[in-house]
Fold each of these.
Amino acid sequence: MGFFLETLIGGLMAGMLYSLVALGFVLIFKASGVFNFAQGAMVLFAALAMARFAVWIPAWLGLDSPFLANTIAFLAAGALMFVVAWLVERLVLRHLVNQEGATLLMATLGIAYVLEGVGTSIFGSDVYKIDIGMPKDPVMILEGSFEGGLLINKEDFVAALIAAVLVALLALFFQKTVTGRALRAVADDHQAAQSIGIPLNRIWVIVWCVAGVVALVAGVIWGSKLGVQFSLATVALRGLPVVILGGLTSIPGAIIGGLIIGVGEKLSEVYLGPMIGGGIEIWFAYQLALVFLLFRPQGLFGEKIIDRV
Amino acid sequence: MSRQIGEVILDLKNVSLSFGGVKALTDISFDVREHEIRAIIGPNGAGKSSMLNVINGVYRPQQGEIVLRGQHFSKMNPYKAAKAGISRTFQNIALFKGMNVIDNLMTGRNLKIRSNLIQQAFWWGPARREELAHRAKVEEVIDFLEIQHIRKTPVGRLPYGLQKRVDLGRALAMEPSILLLDEPMAGMNVEEKQDMCRFILDVNDQFGTTIVLIEHDMAVVMDISDRVVVLDYGKKIGDGAPDAVRANPEVISAYLGASH
Amino acid sequence: MLYRENGQFKTSYAADQQIFPIAQDRWAIVGLLVFAFIGIPLLVDEYLLRAILIPFLILSLAALGVNILVGFCGQITLGAGAFMAVGAYAAYNFHIRIEGLPLLLSLLLGGLTAAAVGIVFGIPSLRVRGLYLAVATLAAQFFTDWVFLRVPWFTDNASSGSVSVSNLQVLGWPIAAPVDKYLFCLGWLTVFALLAKNMTRSAIGRQWMAIRDMDVAAEVIGIRPLFAKLSAFAVSSFFVGTAGALWGFIHLASWEPAAFSVDRSFQLLFMVIIGGLGSIMGSFFGAAFIVILPIALNQFLPAIGGLFGITISTAGISHAELIIFGALIIFFLIKEPHGIARLWSTGKEKLRLWPFPH
């Protein structure tokens, strides 16, 4: 029982990170109808920037407080993601208005390549560490209720907490601010939003920016756990089944989908894996998504797509 | 005029259609006789296009049935409809934009092609012969519609009026027994409308094709159609010869009273 | 003034429906084939054959397959690598498990197996499209990655899916030297390109394009989406599968699943975007471009860097390659969605009218 719960909780923690990536997908898809394949590249790019700035900036300024260095690096990386968002809108999206989804999808693949190339050119392609002082030691909880208790990684716990706070902030941003309302309006109907004077181009920059910040947070958490390296870019591929499961247009769907996939992967790897050879984590998520595509293409929480003739 | 209006070929019985609670068509019945030109008119949103979509199986009505040459269909689908000789044009031209005029018309011959994929891949015997025979048929349609000069132009590059004509051509290439026309003259200038009217009448006259059409231009409808159905808010409010329909008080109020 | 069709009148539909209706084009293609079959083996050294020409031929074949699905039928795929893998490993199994099976047959059976798997993973296309379909094809990719790595039966119990073939021959002709491999692949590609062209210019091709351009209208005209889509998946996977078999058997001779990873799938998709969606010719342009670009960059970037006194490392080159690929994809999607093939045909159009502008 204890082992099962540990696996479950490990899955939930991993799932929280998938949720963060999926959240980036959903934000951009809702506001611009673009499925952003570059989300993984953005995570890599942001994490690289963060990791390197945290080293470079103290060296330039002669700082020796790691907290200050990390804060400045985080802000600088955030600013960089804003520049990325602006450039993407200027150079790509603006020229592809009203194109089909598949075309936009392929364009974001192009963006992903450019971001990966530029990122590794500027920041280098080694494995970097991000050290934001996350606690590394595991901790026992619920020793009273189980024999042996549950072994939880403190780092995972903090990460999940950060992710939860971010999601809450985003929800507030969407529900309570004027910009958030404009974003929701654009998501519902591009043309109607435009006709009441919401500037589409600016909205896109904002939403890509928000997605950039989400990518940054995901990148920092992931980076501090596993180090910043090229394979971070592939988290986009891990996040894809999550959004299919949760529904492309639903923020709660992204969160819950991420958790389901995280838990499903871990449980299937532990209990099903040994029977059929192991290493099934990646395709398990995809086959689950495939089942959803066949029987419920709009996902758990997405809006139903009706084709009109 | 050799054309003679025959027996009922298409009979719609108590058709009701709704989209998630919104009623598009309520209990509609009417029939179409062989060789006639049957018009469906009505204000915007009256359910005219839905009606055509029901006839050729794009929409499935919740109630009612379609009787085609005595055969009952409670579930029509586009493929069955096409097999049964129903073809149509679209309100917002639905041509295959990446193909040229000949290829668009050739798709209309699709159901008549017998050769299989392997034969086609090797461009072998039957496939090759068929391709030539159908090309000849398609050229007949091209001659009929007077679009020889654009036969190799990708349809995306054609002006609106010509696209409408190619759309008609593709439907004709199927050699249909029933032709559904969804606003064939919408957005055309007077000259183009006259051309289109001439083509419709010629099709009806020369090939004996039964025609069901939706049109907004009252003058045209009254001029060319044999019988008219009037829809309003998804209900049938009139049915009969053009003159009778024009005198129907309910129709007058729907057109004059309600909308203006 | 040479490139004119003046005076070439067509008196039958057969003449008008030829693959190359213009006489100059016919001569050009005959010349090109003669040069490819006779000239190149005499002129070119082994390195060029092995590093550029053989990969180009095989990837062209794969690109043809991807183009049938994506360019002609409008169904996006991010899983082409999976079908290459299925083709390669299926052909391998036929090759080693059936004693004395001719090589040609093994390769074709590999392709047919890929076609069958293609149909299975094409089923979601009946319900979903665009991004959703992309996910379904990715599912195929990750699943086959895993199968060939972890299920030992498929790889004859080889560790980590690494297998090899040797002593290949066709009707007593040993396919061993690079020239033989080149000629074998060239012959194969010529036949398959002709098949692809024939399909795209006959009824089945029109069905695919109709589904791509306007699926509702296609259905109304009597095209069954089920048949059109699944046949596109089958034919495409057949082409891609045989390309995978050739890649494994002829080009690599020993390989492991990583040769057909998701990166390969992306690469194939980029080939058809850059080369030209919905164009047979474009598949060749795209393959040539993607095979040559990295080699060209390797040659020229250090030289250009040298001019400005910068040394560019190998890592730098691979980063530059990523950036250039990405930028080109975006460029083509924005400026010329029909790729190099369209630039080519626009050029020809101009040439026909030259020196007049219209």
Amino acid sequence: MADAIATREALRIVGHAVPRHDARDKVAAATAYAADWALPGMLHAAVLRSPYPSARIVKLSYARAAAIEGVAVVLTAKDVPRNTLATDVPGQTSAVGPLRATLSVLAEDRVRHQGEPVALVAAETLEQAHAALEAIEVEYERTPGVFIPEAALAAGAPQVHAAGNLLAQWRIARGDVAAGFARAAVVVEGEYTTQLVDAAYLEPESGVAWIDGDGVITIRVSTQVIEHFRDVAEVLRVEQNRVRVIGTYLGGGFGGKEDVTVEIYLGLLALKTGRPVKMVWTRAESLLARAKRHPYRMRYRTGALATGEIVAQEIDLLADAGAYAYLSALVLLYSTVTAAGPYRVPAVRAEARVAYTNNPPTSAMRGFGAMQTVFGYESQMDRVARALGLDPVEVRRVNALRRGDTLPVGQVIETHVALPELAERAWAALGPPTLPRAPHVRVGRGLACNFQPYGRIVWLHDWSSAWIGFEMDGSLVVRCGVPDVGGGQASSLCQIAAEVLGVSLARVSIHIADSALTPLAGTTTASRQLYMSGNAVLKAARELAAQILAVAATLLRADADGLELTDDAVVARDGRSLALPEVLRECARVGVPRSHLAVYHAPAGEPVDLATGSGKVFPDYTFGAHAAEVEVDTETGRVRILRYAAAHDVGRAINPQSVEGQIQGGAVQGLGYGLMEEVVVEDGINLTTSFATYLIPTAADVPDVEAVVVESGEGLGPFNARGIGEPPIGPPAAAVANAIADAARVRVTRLPITAERVARALGLFDD
Amino acid sequence: MIARMVLNGRAREVEVRASQTLLEVLRDTLGIFDVKEGCDEGVCGVCTVLLDGRPASSCLVLAAGVRGRAVVTLRGLERDGGLHPLQDAFVRHGAVQCGFCTPGMLLTALAFLEREPRPDREAIRAALEGNLCRCTGYTKIVDAISAYVREANGDG
């Protein structure tokens, strides 16, 4: 931004660890989540799902179900006005061609994954709805499925979709890779495998829909994307202005509530019955039905000089999309762009493919394809360092990107890259080494750096809008369509508005996430809300301040430039002041608005051809470095994290406490990914549909995470902030793998790094 | 049948079916939405209530089996309409993100602190093992509880 960087001392509210308004409500359990909602005459809804990963629907009959007492309606594909949901990938430049991927709202003649929705029921009670599900008669004829991406791409494989199993393919070719390898002192090769994981937020997918008094289909739902009101309208074949989505404060999202969940079903059932309808997925249903994180198979070949300088890298990525495209093509794009890491690599050849299978579908999850690759490139970096006898911090310093460098995809890095400092500070934060507590226990340390885009791909032409207005008493109202997933999205916007307009935080009310009543702000995804909506609020606040100060200037007979909004008043340089309500009354009298709507447009660009390295893909990136100290039990393979430090350059921390929370929470999700989480699927059947089998970290599984917040003062967000929602989930798996290599001289290349895998690597088993 | 309980200090009698859990009755019959539903098998801890002072997963308790015992939900902690000092510590220390685990986390922590008033961080972590949090990574939750312990014991 053009603004001079404000110093923290000059800021009253931004940059301070202020308690969040939503935290006060949440500790008192005053927050009404999507399931904490009931309306008179409300029906309860449930989904019938396919038990098979690949089958034809031969017969579907629901007469018996519809006759059950209390059942209001049963819906199948033929009852859905437009039975198609579409994902567009503009500018896709792969060998596969432009993508308009679709899936059916309810399965028609075929199911492609276990858990695919087949029918909907709404009944007076949930018990009756479940009884009706059991009474729906579906005759399936099982068909051969394919469950491994390599197998899916082989000749003769069962075709998941008519267009073939190769969903998307991206390529990067930069520099002379062969010449690079020829001058390398060391060449390191590795193959890495990452697993299918679940967002596993504690609040299951849930919502209530009703036809409001104005006839508008209103859906109150836990979602990261209220703009899905348009998708609901398409499916219902009504005008988009006849559907309203009210987004609740979420009980976690992490990308899992980016695609539609219950809102389409609720809209359909409310429209068909004319009654309020509630749908809450069970945990089993959530773990079965929601799109998950893509598993990857990554092959790396890295050449480096004796100094540690990387001169060439060959990368081959293959991901599993599951049965439907969702956002897979874009997730793969993120992987491709980030595959060589936050380093200067003069010669890169990368090939990335994602294949359809009959596994559970995969889509957005925190990190969005830019996190799987960290396990690849940082394991490689560690191997290079070990092969050359270099210090882990030194090898990153040698290779770190700097401002002005060009990524393999052709994008020039335009902001400060704090990488060497981040690596040093994370490493130093581990403190003095821990001594092994027993002879069979080894202790070691590992480092991993990453970079994660914030903001959407530039050719998606992203924007956000916000409205700010003063009430006559000088209290402030902010309206912004931002969904708050729990990261303090709404609260940060209040800080920005309060800072610029000179009111205390307690005098700000914010209304969020209502597609009918708040200006649209786009999705709470891609680490974009602070960047995008923060800039929209900043713009609205500054323009509103200018309006108000112009009026105050006439009252005070002073120059508007010399006036300041502070402490609920307008203050002149000479010390004269006017209470805000006085100025607001004058605004009303002379016809100057006391409110303002602003739209922030991110810098946009046209689609680039990755293969030829032609330009900008993302607005900017957030960099990080994590350091782990682990102990490895050489008799059992058990790994315990002793210390963990995570450093990120956030440009500026709008609320340092929230930033630390994002870093600590992201790091622990990353540790879960690295050490324990896995959706186990056998021949398309999910074996981990409960929290007793899908394990996420408990308080006893992980140590304190020391968050190292670095503020370079450079970033594209308000007050030069960078996005921090996703970045911290990237490095943990690699940091732990590298620490295990340091402790026990074994390298684990498959996630999660379970005790069994470590024991195998240690040679504790015969096979 | 009738389920009897003393809910947040008030004797209640509720008509229930034999199969209904305390969680279902609290939320669906009594509209006590401060008890959350997360996994329905006693693993996640978001439905925690205090049953005669001990944390229990209300999704695993049959409502009719409560038989007059004291049930405390988060709302039962309010003191003269204000926050309990532990709730306040959660706000001040940033221990709340999405907030879905918070009611259960607070109740588990309070019941634990009744038994063990001066725990260290490791003991706090062990006590919270049955309450999952997917947002915070637990560090700030342990910070908040530790700070409350210091303040409650006059250690400033």
Amino acid sequence: MKQEYTITVYTEDRVGMVGRLANIFSRRKINIEYLNTAPSEVQGIHRFTIVIVETHEAVQKLVRQIEKQVDVLKAYFHTEEEIIWQEMGMYKVPSESITEKVKVERLLHEYGARAIAIRKDYIVFEATGHKEEIDRLVKFFEPYGLIEFVRGARVAIIKKSSGFHEKVKEFERKQPAENFEINTIPVDQSVFSL
Amino acid sequence: MSLEVQETETKKEAAAETRNVTGSEAILEIFLKEGVEVLFGYPGGAIMPLYDVLYHYNDPLRHILVRHEQCSVHAAQGYATVSGKTGVVLATSGPGATNLVTGLADAMIDSTPIVCLTGQVFAPLLGTDAFQETDIINITSPITKWSYQITDAEEIPAVLSKAFYIARSGRPGPVLIDITKNAQVQKFDFAYEKCDHIRSYRPKPVVRKEYVEEAAKLINSAQKPLVVFGQGVILGNAEEEFKKFIEKGDLPAAWTVLGLSALHSDHPLNVGMLGMHGNYAPNVLTNECDVLIAVGMRFDDRVTGRLDKYAKQAKVIHLDIDPAEIDKNVKADVPVWGDCKETLPMLTQLIEERKHSEWLQQFEELAKQEDEICIRKELYPETEILSMGEVIRIMNDITGGDAVIVTDVGQHQMVACRYAKFTKSKSNVTSGGLGTMGFGLPAAIGAKLGAPEREVIAVVGDGGIQMTIQELGTIMQNQIGVKILVLNNHYLGMVRQWQELFMERRYSFTDIESPDFVKLADSYNIPGARVETRDNLKAELEKMLNHKGSYLLEVKVGRENNVFPMVPQGCSVSEIRLS
């Protein structure tokens, strides 16, 4: 059964990483729903968050192919239940219609939105939440002449993760510890327990 | 709290000795330190500074000027396969680099250790569509194990040491390093240290003992075990370990095309070739065995036939160095990831000494059927028409199985793999995964350079040889003593066979005319002969093999002979046809 999986990849900060990773998906004709890439908490290491809709079997094979890349330190995949995730939306709406017709306070309160720029002719709101919440606000703004909308790619915190600092130190050792394995299959899918 | 973690590999202290040299000099010094002896390449604008320095290095480093860049990779592949060393390729930017693509794809899918260096336009010109600029890093991204673009000479030592380490460690593969022209001429303080660790890369996974134990238990309980092995045994230098393993367990062992030569052809437990044109017994009995032990092979579709009917009754043990291969095509009940050089002895220690006489008897019986229905006809044809099989049989008689056999792709490849005898490992060079026509001739050049003391025979078809026939020039100029055996059926034989069997004999563009190969070879100063009848076949083969230096022998074989047995596409391995 296909469902949404969030793939987390830690890579070296190298030119061309996005392309190398994207190739792994595109050659199998798998569409990437969301892609976020940014420096991680560890200097020199980037963290990718990739969301796809696939079967468990397919995503497991993909993650092994990702981990096979020389510049990839580690890759994980999780279902929605195993992560805390957020998306972000920014909405540019005409000041006039929104201030005249909407109780902005209510909007901010009910949708958890924030006004981050207020100009004479437009206001930019920002909201974070799950996809449905971001979409709900789009629907809300549409009648008032939504000028522009942008959605930020999903970011996710892995519930069972204990961070990457210690992991990197293990990677730096030439001889991996007895119980240390990489490039292997998460037996029970729990993170960092390999 | 400091979040900084130093990347050790790039920040190594410079070794004691530093010298101020150009990027090009540094590259060639690194080649020497990495034990490179032969380079295959073709010069051009963007790689000229390197070639200029190479002029002074032509003594320790032998450069072979090929006639097309694709062939430089194939030659490097032949060199790497027989020698176990890393093949090195030089090419220029633009068309020089794009011509490498087929070779790189071939090396990637067949796990051949290759380091390719391509020239690139000056760094400030990148992205301007400069003359002979092409984005070779991105073009080759899916077909390289690793790639990197050097724009500053300071990067050369660290990047090249990584390139060699990555190419030959773990599951080997091709690495491409693109180097801009400015970096080749730039002077810098050069020091070199070999790379033996990259934090984001583990060449082999840690062996998990519990799985080895689990595997041994399964093997000990098996009544009908079958071992299927591939190139992993050869790449891991684990031929001896493998032999001990199968001998202790009395395990019949069948090989993939790339696993060929890892086990002596006449070993009593060698039950033959797997897959589409493999032997009858191992294919049929794949679907009868109770434990299938895969060693260093990747369950290619040409090996498995229809996957949903492949060894469904069997418990599968999969030994592989590449964890991504586990469960990729065939689900493993027991994954034994790791280098088989390590895992095989561990397994051997844990398995019981067993005899499987009845089970082995089944292989013999099926082999007898195959022999009666197809092998005898192929090796000892009753008609006047020459068969490819009999040519290979006589060749075996003369070489005693000691030669390196390099094949191209097609019918002759399957026949050669089926019937050529091997007594030594690393003796079979072929394009297995990619099926690259034109591979044979250039790969044979590399193989001869990788094993100069050995007889190297390129067995090629009339179609394939014409794809890279310009390499006769390379053979001539460098006096490379390869023997070229052209099995000419005046067809693109394998495609024609499919057209005959599955497309009602519509021979759509498979009838191919050839030049006079003997005359052509002669114009390259390569002596040769043609055989059209059986009476002088043996004598001509002997003449070729006794000849010092290169030689071309063309044998006119039956036009519409087919390769059997055959697992038709979409069929299960047990539905293999004998005729």
Amino acid sequence: MTTTATTAKQGATAPTPPAARTGRTFGRRPSLRSYLASLSWSSLLYVAPALAFFAVFVLYPIGISVWYSFYAYDGLTQGTPVGWDNYTAVFTDSLLRAALLHSLVLLFFYAVLPVCVGLLLAGAMSRIRVYGLTVFRAVLFVPQILSSVVVAVAWRNLLAVDGPVNTVLKAVGLGRFTTSWLGDFDTALPSIGVIGAWVEYGLCMVLFLSGIVAIDRSTYEAARLDGAGPVREFFAITLPALRPQISIALILTVTFALRNFDLIWNTTRGGPGTTTTVPSLYVYQDAFQNRMLGRASALAIVLTVVILAVVTLVQLALREREHPLRRFTRPGRPGRKVQS
Amino acid sequence: MAITLATLLACAACSPPGAGKGTSAGGTVAITDPVTVQQVADLGDVTLRMWADQAEKPLMKSVVPAFEKKYPNVKVDITYKSFDDLIATVVNAASGTNPPDLFQGNIGYAVDGALVKAKLVRPLDDVAAAYGWITGTGASTLAPARWNGSGTAFGSGNLYGMSPISEVQGIYYNKAQLKELGLKPPRSFADLEKDLPAVKEAGEQPIMLGNSDQYAATHIFSDLAVTEQTPASIRDWIGGKAGTTFVTEGNAKAAETMADWAKKGYFGSGYDGLSNEDAISRFAKGSGVFFVGGSWNGAMLDPAKFGFGALTTGGAGATASPWHISASSKNTPAAVAFLAALHTPKAGQVILDTGRLPVVTDGVKGTNSLQTQTLDALKGTIAAGTQVGYYDWTASDMLNVMGGKLQEVMAGRAGDTQFMKAVQASWLKARQTR
């Protein structure tokens, strides 16, 4: 328990961001004019190029999508306004509801699983002295940097009915479990999930390793002196200290899970039947195959809102809470590290 | 950010997207006779810009140098794209401010329909008449490129495109395996159906199928369906004729046969996890006795080891992606001359030599038995008039609806009625929104 306090302290030593300071000033003098006056215009100049880029390549397309989403538009001839019809279609289409459900299943495989595996690997790597650690780290990170088409093609072969996975299963006497993993109605979705987990766990692991490096080694020594074993050490020190990294990892993986398209397009195209369809598959089909830009835009907007909502939830759940003990520990005084 | 969005929305509220996009009808030179070298020379030094499927590269490598030699003032500049990329982007390119002069579309509503509806492509009736395309051997293959003026129905009407390349369905067979089993090359689906149990009993996989892209099985279904009803009735339905339906006894029978064959293991196991590409490469290496599919698969096969059984009963098949001339092209005579160069027996021979099938077959000869067999199959089906086109022309999401439902039928998860009703519903929806 005491060690948790130390961890919280780690977070507290981070410098207060300037934005927070401005906010406080604003709170004291609540007039808009003085707020504008307090803004440093020359600093705005520095962010202007990035802001312009952001506006042109992010805000403008989003605005266009919102605009299109209220029309029946084929991208060529004049669109006709349809009000909220495109959005009603999104929420009433049973195929889309099923696709959303598939996304939730994938959320487990693409976000929860990689974070757990990443934690396990990072925990093990930080404790056990591995020779050639850099090499292992690099190799385990490779899935993350491979092009998704390459990943899809490789896994399609691995999971094929006569692929290596089934060969291994047969070799160890589990021949009755062999199947066409991506072609079977029951195994296609979990199989795609496993591929996604494989892609993402390397990223999680590297994030967590960098977080672990930042943990004060002496806290581990202290824990060991108190008689904590490796498991206890992991849950008492490592896990709480990694809260910010876990939050980042979840944001990245959740976004990846919900907007996933390329892996599915290159493995099953949503099949067999409609067992692996996801919303972004329909966005692509509506926009580029069916030329229904209005409906595709509406669906994309809804998907964006859903992703934002889930990410916000994750952030709220994992934000740094003020620990009751923090008030009594002053940052930068190593002497008060362990309290009991 | 909120301000930006608000402004955007405010100005968006007043005008619908695509408003004021004028359709420039520039460069509509009527063609009454074949274009002369002088007419093209009158254009001055010009660059003929094109977008093509990368599968056309071997053909272009032969046609372009000859064309540039004949018309020295024209430089040909081709942008190659994969088929998927091409059909996803060509309509936007055609509607841009500087569209390519010549480009390939795709039969059906998603691409060609959109191009015709937005008046982005030049009608080619005058060209076809001037060059005699409507009377030659490939005349009947032009039908899918004919549209009504509003781009809402195709199969007849004005001609908007031309493809020099055709496709035909048939049964590829492994010669050595057939011999070993003591079977004769199949000449029809009835022959095939008779052979399947024997092959299965001998412990071989009867038909190699890779259906993860969801289309390969629909092509076999199409070949079966056309043996149960007239090709014309299927063509009518594909063309979107009012009052036609997919819920027919013939289609029910074909769906039942597919389910039955799948259940009996005639397609092996795991076909839904195998892409068509993977399947044909496995077949080329000797797995599976038969492969039912289109002529484009033949390029992967060794002519000494494989044969092609024609299906004169017809089925899926038609011309490949048609070429269009941009309605706003300033180089129309050069573009017309290029199309004409594609529609010749000489180009036809190059097409066959590079592993595909030409529309113009006069004097075109195969260099090996597989090529000759495939070419004969094409001539046979065109003469019999039994090609029905492709089901996915009917609606832009038909490939997914039909392909996905057929997977369910074959896995025993949906009945034939369910399958037919889902397909018909998609057809109807597409028709109503046109």
